[in-house]
Write a structure and sequence with these properties.
This protein is an alpha+beta fold. Among the domains are: about 140 residues, Beta-Lactamase (2-Layer Sandwich), CATH 3.30.450; about 150 residues, Histidine kinase-like ATPase, C-terminal domain (Heat Shock Protein 90). Helix content is about 55%, strand content about 10%. It has 11 helices and 10 strands. The chain is rod-shaped and about 155 Å long. The two termini are about 35 Å apart.
Amino acid sequence: MNWRPRSLFGRNALFIVALIVLGQLGGAVLLRQMVVKPRLDQAADGVARTVAAIRAGLVTVPAAQRQAFVEAFNARARAADGGREAPAPALLRPLLTPLERGFVRRVSARLADQGVEVIWRRDPSGRLALRLPMEGSDAWVVLPGLLPEREFTGAWLAVSTVSVVLAIAGALWLQRRLDRPLARVVGAARALAGGQVPAPLPEDGPTEIATVSRSFNQLVASLQQAERERALMLAGLSHDLRTPLTKLRLGVEILHGRSEPELMASMTRSIEELDAIVGQFLDFARGEEAEALVPVDLDALARAVHAAAADHGRTLRVEASAGGPPVPARPKALRRVLDNLVENAFRHGKPPVVLRTGREAPWAWIEVEDRGPGIDPAQADLLKQPFRRAGDARSGAAGAGLGLAIAERIARGHGGRFELLPAAQGGLRARVSLPLDPGDLLSRR
């Protein structure tokens, strides 16, 4: 299991937090080694000398006066700490803190070097006391409060905690500021990959981020310029081809009845195919953004396509089941998609050809189904590209290979999707799905 975050923000945040925590731990170790231990050794040396001096003084004091001397010394030691007395017996705190344990070891070692073996206990006031072996009787000497209860005081812990929190918060805020422009670039790249033109990215912020945004804006501008030039080239080519096609059609009409009927019919079909290809070029070159979004009844649109097919002597079955309110769409562009899909079904598939509508939240869809040989599912995405045609899967008359590319571009321009799916009884289903919520369209642009 990979416990590392997948996002750049998560990884950098984890790295920054780890560095700050390790820095604080290193600071604590350094404080202990460079400050606490030297001071502890210094305090132990002073206490060992003091205890040795007290013991030497007690040796010179008569035995009857030693107890009074020790009590007077202990009273002064307690007074040095403000005279506080423990409200509970000393057995309530029998254990030594780690700091006191180290202090006791150091003092005991120094006194042992002088030939003095001591025993430690807690005074009723909570202070440390040690027993000095003397001739006749032992003396318990109370040590003043030389040490704090902990190596790291509450103030140090509070300051360290606040500094860690502030450092982490500042680092995360800085990383968020760096992550936000990258997120905008990712969103714009996804929109561009979906066939939409993203809004220009702001070119402010750090130099590196501004350079990335500026480069992406230049890329989008270059792609738009290339698309405009390609559309202009296709439109000009199509326009130039229309004139000779019109002359050829006129020539065929003049020769009608003077040549063999089969030859005339073949020439007429060839001219119609060329005219259809030129029409696809014009459709592909035409931009859809100029057409406004309006409410479109998919059932009514399906009936209009059915009527147009009937005018051309084609049998198109309509199964309208979308219902509900109209869908925000560009009616001319959507009609162009359906005309291409119906023409593709009759040209490359087999009857019956069915036009269906339906709703599956959050989408409304309209599809064209035929009973032809279908296509290889692995080629579905490839066939949506311009000038791509299926191999042996769907045979038929020659074409420009732009019908499915037009459907794909218009569907994405609506914030929807275009799918090539296998039919339940064999054949192909070409489905266009549109978002029911107009906000979905605006969020996808």
